[in-house]
Amino acid sequence: MPIQPRFKDAPHFRSFWENGNGKQLIDFSGAEVSFKDFEKFSVYFYHVDEMGDQVVKDVYFVKKFHEASREIENYIRNGVTEADQAPDSVKKLFAQTQTVPDWLDYDLLKSGAELCMRSNLDSLISLRDYCLMGGYDYSYLNKPLTATEALKKGAVKRLSETLDFWVNATRYNALELHAKGYEFAIKTRLIHSYARLSIKKHYKQWDTENWGEPINSWDMMATYIGFSLVFLHSLQKLGNTFSIEEEQGILHLWKYVGYLLGIPEQMLPDNKKQATEYFYLWTSVQPPSDKDSILLAHSLLDESLENPILKFKFQRKNLRYLHICCTWFLLDDEVCKRLQIPEVSNKNLFPKTKIFINTIYDRLVSRDARIRKGDKDQRKVLEDYLKITKNSNFH
């Protein structure tokens, strides 16, 4: 099924790339956008991680879920060899993930991790109010969430899982074989396969022609560009500065995570220029927000009110207000209007104050101290989330 850049002349596409954040990404990255490579990438709209899918069929679909999980955990932590009594599909998958690619640069991984930690809570604001919220505007990208009824699970649980993965993948040495970030990448890969196979089996309304395969490789690429390129752009908007090495480090870190997740290597960008050019092509097949997008966006906004981390109602309302301010500040007005983000007063005050504080903090506090503090603060937020979601039937 050859696919066309069907929304390239649509108002939402043009305004994003000509006047909105898309234009800022082009300026930020020096990208030269065009459709000349469209066919090279568009085939991945119907491409999935067959290796992961086969493991799910051979392990998860033949055993009790907790037994299958225990078996996979054992492989992740101890490795798999040809001699092991494991299914061929498992040997094949681990042969890939245990092979460290020639291009991997450990110094760059370290720089990328340091920027994630050093940016402290700005990292978490960026992930939530730009990367995640902005992603909801691409309505086909969200179809797997709708199909697997993620809304019923609730935003608290979903944020907790995303945060758990992100924090564990962005620490020192997190992506070494058998380490915590490596483990999260493999588990996430298999969760994607499990979800995809379940959608194919149970969700009869899936529209492959328009939406692509569920959790297809092209959508995966776009998601990981969210964690790298869009994340960097957001940090910059909030007044953070970063070195060329740190910027390359973030892209390199997510390129390797993408490799572990089974995204084809030729789709993983090496730098922000490539990332922007790849992202441009992908957005041309995505229509703007629909009613599911709005539900997802509002579920994320209301997470602050539902989440019992803060004791008092006024604190929760205030937190929701601050996230709304950041969302308006980081995303295009048109996107916010499509997602029906509420209008609030003085919405630029908090982001502008943040930029001002970042400028001063940058000068006064050493890089090492900021990395240590950021790591500690981010782990504390994660710990609070895990406490809530683990100790209750929160979803």
TrEMBL record:
Pfam families: MPAB_Lcp_cat. Residues 153-344 form the ER-bound oxygenase mpaB/mpaB'/Rubber oxygenase catalytic domain. Keywords: Oxidoreductase. It is an enzyme of class 1 (oxidoreductase). Its EC number is 1.-.-.-. PANTHER family: ER-BOUND OXYGENASE MPAB_MPAB'_RUBBER OXYGENASE CATALYTIC DOMAIN-CONTAINING PROTEIN, SECRETED PROTEIN-RELATED. This is Oxygenase MpaB family protein. It comes from Chryseobacterium kwangjuense.
